[in-house]
Amino acid sequence: MSIAAINERLLRSIGVGVAILRFSDLKFYYVNPAFEDWFGDPVTSEVITGIIEDIRDEARSALRENGSFAGEVRIKPKRRTLVIALSLTLTEVDGEEMIVAECQNITRMRELEQMIDTYSTMVERNTRELEREKERVEKLLLNLMPRSVYEEFKTFGVVTPQLYKNVSVVMLDFVGFTAFAEKTDPTVTLSELNDIFTAFDRITEQFGCERIKTIGDAYLGVSGMPEAAPDHATVVANCAIRFLRYLERRNQSHQYKWEARIGLGTGAVVGSVVGIQKYVYDVFGPAVNMAARLQVAAKPMQIVAPESMKFDLIDAFQISDLGAHDIKGLGEMPLISVSGHMPTSSPTTRF
Amino acid sequence: MSGTLFEKYGGFKTVSRIVMTFYDMVLDDDAVGHVFENTDMAKLVDHQTKFVASLLGGPASFSDERLEQVHAHLGISHSDFDIVAGLLGDALAEHGMEPADIRAVAQTVETKRTLVVARDAA
């Protein structure tokens, strides 16, 4: 078989539509079967007439300028619309300018592109939803543990218990809460607690104290962990005073009046995530016990602290000695009560 | 709860092939092909990708309202619906889906019948 014959056969069998036409009058000299399948007989085909009509001027000038033209045409030989990529090249045969037209069916490619578009939109939307979900989970976890602990938890999957030597603790408990809860609609009780604890959270945040948890009506906050804070004692005292002030102000305008006892503690604390499935960040240690015990010893709307905190607090707060008390689990210990700053108008009363 | 059919059969990789086959079958069918004759290809592919993915429990949502809306003016008959549902089954089978799973998909498709078939259809 001669090369010419092979070429001829190749042109017949390939899936690319090929046509050759004269540049001057666009008369067709050759079309291969694939081309004819799509566009019909070039002599009679209205499809071809239409296409030529559409692209003639543009194609002519492109061919003149660059010797080639590329475009896309849509045809509908049967029910389905085909997208055909059209590529024209200018060439010379026997001194005459001829156009070689090469057509490829890119319908399937277009369909796949469309499908990928659809799918990527879907995936992107799902990714956004997952991202939002992740943020919600993170926010929830951040309510359960301090950020630095959360970061450790996220990175390593576990949290190593850490001992913090210099930490102060504030523990608050409402007076008569159980009695209130018994005689009041639980939703009211909850909404009261929610309202007050939300305010407390704002106060602790403002003073750089970390709320660890609430246990029923008790509120536990710490300062000096997980980040060390040299002024941990004044931080918790400031929070304690703001808690009581907030309650006083709130009581003036609210139907239900609340009183609280507050205990402060200072010393070492261990912080860690407890549990695997139902994990919660918790704190243990002498400072926590102390705050809990002293809170019990406090009178309503009083802040009680160990005498060991006296020198940390004396510059900024009003301190009264309460003398030695026998505290369960801690033995005999000297206590102080802490109240707000001296009014600036009468600084001398302190001396 | 095991994974969805979408996961079982290879996710989007398979869905894309099923959609292509289904698309060809529907367009080539003389009884129902005309319905899609003037449908924008892009829309049809979009619609079918989402629809097939959601049928298989994949990450696509295709609301019943939308399904109803896109078919509302097409005047589709029960026999049209049967043909297309059959073609979908064929397309799934062609891509190696097990008969039991095809039946499960067919049941889901059946629940959409009232949304797709025209209200006044015989």
Strand portion of chain A: 25-35%
Task: State the end-to-end distance of chain B.
Answer: 39 Å
Please report the total strand number of chain B as a whole number. 0
CATH overall fold name of chain B: Globin-like
Radius of gyration of chain A: 42 Å
Largest sheet of chain A: 8 strands, mixed
Known CATH architecture of chain B = Orthogonal Bundle
Distance separating the two termini of chain A: 122 Å
- Gross morphology of chain A is rod-shaped
Q: What is the CATH homology-level superfamily of the largest domain in chain A? A: Nucleotide cyclase, GGDEF domain
CATH fold type of the largest domain in chain A: Alpha-Beta Plaits
Kindly provide the name of the CATH class of chain B.
Answer: Mainly Alpha
| Average of pLDDT of chain A | 87
- Spans of chain A of at least 5 consecutive residues whose pLDDT stays below 50 are 343-351
How much of the sequence lies in strands of chain B comes to under 5%
Helix content range of the residues of chain A, please?
40-55%
Query: What structural class results from the helix and strand content of chain B?
Result: mainly alpha
Task: Describe this structure in a few short sentences.
The complex is a heterodimer of chains A (351) and B (122). Helices cover 44% and strands 31% of the residues of chain A. Chain A is an alpha+beta fold and 351 residues long.
